[in-house]
């Protein structure tokens, strides 16, 4: 017997009948949003590596320009689409848009416009912040938060545009292409999310409960929603593979180019760009979620969320606990680039880079850690399940 939650979900998250609204007239915009999101993600990785290698520099660095260029492409393209739809669009094109302040455009276009506005505002704000308060000691600062929200808006706009194109596809070929675009944009979203989680996903934490709690509370929301709403064969697995390819390819390419520190203290002679850490093996838990969803899609929502949460946590543990040992023992090479020391890191601190974080008296017992992580994964999977059912209805 269906639970109350399932009856509510069936009522409020039932896919609507597809209507001929002219969404495919805006297919070019979905491709433009994916290109813009790719520029933002690659530029962000490049910018972080720039600061790790060279230090603080002017706004007019190639990495900054790539990020802001991606924001401008998404923002200007979306703004132009809104003007065209509002003043010169056909009835079908206007019906495929969402009204905002009297203008009409697809939902993803509005999100991209807001993201572009936040990114452009953050640039002079960040410059003023540095002139007023000096260099950042930590990544988190008001202008960086605004920039991060803007970048998330650009990538989210790409996700919503490709999702609408996928859900409104009239023929199998278009649906397959749109499904791949959706998985690609979701992989870019995962890339930014994983970058924001770098502080909790370091290899030195992979044998601690903090690593599994932090990832279980966040990543299943995206992976479960992707597998529920995706129309391709392996949506979550494809998105996770895109995330790994983007981070690995960008890091390997950046290491080929020279870079010299310009900001002290300089304890290490940096000769090339310092890459980010090796990405998480998210294809393993993503594959588990894809396979689990095929078996539990008819289950009650809470039971399905519990199954997918358990699948995520178990495969995350099985893949990353031994993988941490590989990174610790064999990570000092170009492939794993574990010896990615920055210029201000002293030689004496090198011995701590390949040691696991020591447990403190305030840490929880392993069993409690596992139960809390499982509860987090179940909650995040339930949120992802509800979000994925809503995303199945997005056609504009």
Q: What class would the helix/strand composition place it in?
A: mainly alpha
Overall mean pLDDT: 84
Number of domains: 2
- Multimeric organization: single chain
Low-confidence stretches: 7-22
How far apart the termini lie comes to: 34 Å
**With helices defined by DSSP (H or I, 4 residues minimum), what is the helix count?**
13
- Measured by DSSP, the beta-strand proportion falls in under 5%
- What general outline do the C-alpha atoms trace? globular
The strand order across the widest sheet is 1-2
Number of strands: 2
Using only CA atoms, what is the Rg?
22 Å
Largest sheet composition:
2 strands, antiparallel
| Helical content (DSSP H or I, runs of 4+) | 55-70%
The ordered string of helix (H) and strand (E) elements is HHHHEEHHHHHHHHH
Q: What does it look like?
A:
With 396 residues, the protein is mainly alpha-helical. It has two domains: 20-196; 199-232 and 254-396, no CATH class. It has helices spanning 4-12, 27-53, 62-87, 91-95, 107-133, 142-167, 172-196, 209-229, 235-254, 283-296, 301-330, 350-353, 366-391; strands at residues 98-100, 103-105. A hairpin with a 2-residue loop joins strand 1 (98-100) and strand 2. The protein is globular. It starts with a helix and ends in a 5-residue tail after the last helix. Residues 7-22 have low confidence and may be disordered.
Keywords:
two-stranded antiparallel sheet; globular; 2 strands; mainly alpha; single chain; 2 domains; 13 helices; 396 residues
